[in-house]
Every structure is written in structure tokens, then in C-alpha cells.
Amino acid sequence: MRVLIVGAGPAGLVLGSLLRASDIDCLIVERQSRAHVEQRARAGFLAANSVRILDANGLADGLHRHGQTHDACAFRSGAGQFSLTYSELGRREKHTMYPQQDLVRDLIASFLDRGGEILFDSPVDGVHDIDTDRPWISAVGEKLTGRFVAGCDGQYGVARDAIPGTTLRRDHGMSWLALLAEAPPSMATVTYAIHPNGFAGHMARTPSVTRYYLQQSPGVDLSTPEEIWHELDTRMRAETYGPLIRGRILETSTVEIHSYVTDPLQHGSLFLVGDAGSLISPAAAKGANLAIMAASVLARAMVAALRDGDDRLLAGYSAACLPLIWRAQEFSHWMVNLLNTPTGPDAEFMRALQWARLESLRTSRMHQDYFAENYTGVTE
Ligand code: FAD
């Protein structure tokens, strides 16, 4: 009996590859073309737990060959700069920087090598009969039936609509301009800048491409490359630390800083994995890591059910993932409040709290351990 997977992002592809490794028949149905998903730049920072999962399942060759290890980050503000070497704090773990589109390319190749099938250019328009053991999806005019459906179709997918659970939401009422620049990183580490104009972030992607984030603030125009670079230099305090290395801006997108969690993540024969079931702000680089963690939990459960007839892990899928998701949400919200310049009627009070939080992080070893454990976290 096959598993139908909606979506060929990290969640769907890790799940599919792990199922194929156990010889479970599965079909991935993806709305976009193969070229599109293999070029879609998003995440980059893989937590140690994600690398362990990919390693244990023979999916980590590319990231070991081309990924870069990161073990420190820096915070800049009007009070100066400090760095935290998180590989010496908390659980003493590191990140591996490997662009998401490269990971997706590797995962597609592995899934196909393992005998999996992907229908690209095939938007799914609904998931049906999930209260039965013959659920089906409709895509490009066809009815595709399986034993289980995994909704791995991200934040704009259709699978979540079929789950009768509750989706809890939090909108921070702010957005970031996310951009990729064809420029080498200007600093050795991820750098977070806290500035009255709004937050700015610098993250290496490859030796020639850097991701930047800018909190979008009222009255700050970011429409042209010149305005963007000027604002990045201002918030990154070029007057003290030197100007950023500029380059062509390859793409920009707006990321709304909001989160949701669907509870439960399953109903009948349908299971939500990754952004389909829980969205987290990029403030703590957790989304792709949560997707990989949940895909691995679900793969184990589906293999037990389909190969050994043991449904217990499957019944506990949502309960196994939700505490990890909420812990990541808690840290991501802490990061949102640490990094972003508050606006609104209580902005001055919130700004004072932001300074207190930053100062505590700079000076308290316990606070630094908390940061490191959660920053590199998401561990089953
Ligand atoms: P997706 O990657 O969104 O994949 C879902 C797939 O489903 C897509 O291919 C989509 O085309 C397909 N689909 C959607 N609807 C349908 C349909 N109806 N029918 C068929 N297919 C459908 N996370 C980190 O961990 N670290 C980071 O550093 C980080 N940085 C980020 C930076 C940016 C700018 C953004 C936007 C996100 C970032 N994230 C980061 C989050 C991370 O990219 C996501 O959490 C991750 O992609 C989730 O994987 P997924 O497989 O659940 O969903």
C-alpha cells in the first residue's frame, strides 16, 4: 500500500527517502517544476540533529562535501559588539551551512535512486476520505489513492484544510525583507544588528552569496539596491565596523513574522509534516530543521505500521512532535523580541526589555547556555 506525499520540500523528500529505504511504496506530488524546487533559496543552517538524521540515512554526502561548519554568532548594537561561540556553550553543537536548494537537489536524487516517483507540475487540490484507510488526493484531474497521505505542502498548501484540529496563530505584526546578494560574506559569523531603524541580519550562504534580512520599518524605503545597501550599512554600523561588501541583489522577498501550530498534526490517514503543520519565524533558523525532525519521526511510525502492523508510533506522531515544535516556537519568539525594534504604544517599555535581554545574554553564562542549547536545538 503506497504513501502519498504532497510536496517536494525538505519534509516530503526526507520522508519519502526514509520510506523508500524501507522499501515502502510512495509517490510525491509537487505543484512546481523540478527546476523550480531545486533552485528555491530559503534556509541554510542545519542543526546537528538534522545532520545526524541525514547522516544515519545516507542523505548527507553533499552537505559533508560542500557544507560549512558554523559555531559562533555576533550581536551588534549601539553598546558595541559581542560574539558567542555556541559550540562551547549549551550542548556544544554546531550548525552546518548548506543551502536548502542544494539539500533539496540531493534529496530528489536519492529519492529517485531509491525507486521513488515524483509527479512535478502537479498541484494537489484536495485531500479526501481521510477517515478511511483509502484516502485520496486529486491532482491534475486524476484521483490518486494510497494508505496514508503526508501533507508536506508548506504554509500555502491544501492538506492543513482537511484536518479538523485547531490552528493556533501569533502574528508579530512585522515583516522582514529577505535578500540574497551576490557578494561574499562581510563577516566571519552570522551577525545580528539591533538598531533604532530596525533589525538587520547577515548570514553566509556560500563563499560568493550572502543572505541579509532587514526588518521593514515605517518610513524606511527599501525599494532600490542603493537604499537597501545604505540601510544595511547603517544598521550594521559601517561607521564603526567598516562597510559591507556589496554585490548584485539576486532576489528579494518579504517574510511576515508570524507563526502557527496545528494541533493535532494528524487525523485518520492524514499527517502534517513541516511548514504544513507549523510555521515558525526565520529568527532562529528552525523551520527546515523541524521539518526534517518530524519527517524522521513519521517515517519510523509509518514503517512500523506498514511493515510490522504496529500502529502505536503512528497514533503518537502528533504527541511526539508537538512538544519539540512548541519549544522551538518559544525560542523563536524569544529571538523575535531580542532582535526586532519594537513599535506601537508600548515601544519604549519593550525597547528597555530588549536591552535588558541583550545585556543578560552578553554577561550571563547561564543565559548563554540557554541560547546555545536552543539556537542549535531541535533534538528528538
Ligand atoms: P516547503 O519547503 O515549503 O515545501 C513544500 C512543498 O509543497 C513546496 O515544494 C511546494 O511547492 C509544494 N506544494 C505546496 N502546495 C502544494 C499543492 N497544493 N500541491 C502540490 N505541492 C504543493 N529554516 C531553517 O531551518 N533555517 C534557516 O536558515 C531558514 N531560513 C529561511 C529563510 C527564508 C527567506 C525562508 C522563507 C524560510 C527559511 N527557513 C529556514 C524556513 C524553511 O525554509 C522552511 O521551514 C522549510 O522549507 C519547510 O520545509 P517543508 O518541506 O515543510 O515546506
Helices and strands, with pairings:
Blueprint lengths: L2 E4 L3 H12 L4 E4 L4 H6 L5 E2 L1 H9 L4 H6 L1 E3 L1 E6 L2 E6 L9 E3 L2 H14 L3 E3 L4 E5 L7 E4 L2 E4 L2 E4 L14 E17 L7 E4 L6 E7 L2 E7 L9 H11 L2 H4 L6 E16 L2 E2 L2 E3 L5 E2 L7 H22 L3 H4 L1 H23 L7 H17 L1 H11 L5
Parallel strand pairs: 1-2, 1-12, 2-8, 5-14, 12-19
Antiparallel strand pairs: 3-7, 4-7, 5-6, 9-10, 10-11, 13-16, 13-17, 14-15, 15-16, 17-20, 18-19
Helix pairs in contact: 1-5, 1-8, 3-8, 8-10, 11-12
Bound molecules: flavin-adenine dinucleotide (FAD).
The site of flavin-adenine dinucleotide (FAD) has 37 residues, from helix 1 and helix 8.
Give the number of DSSP strands: 20
Q: Uncertain runs with pLDDT below 50, 5 residues or more?
A: none
Major beta sheet, strand line-up: 6-5-14-15-16-13-17-20
Distance between the termini: 28 Å
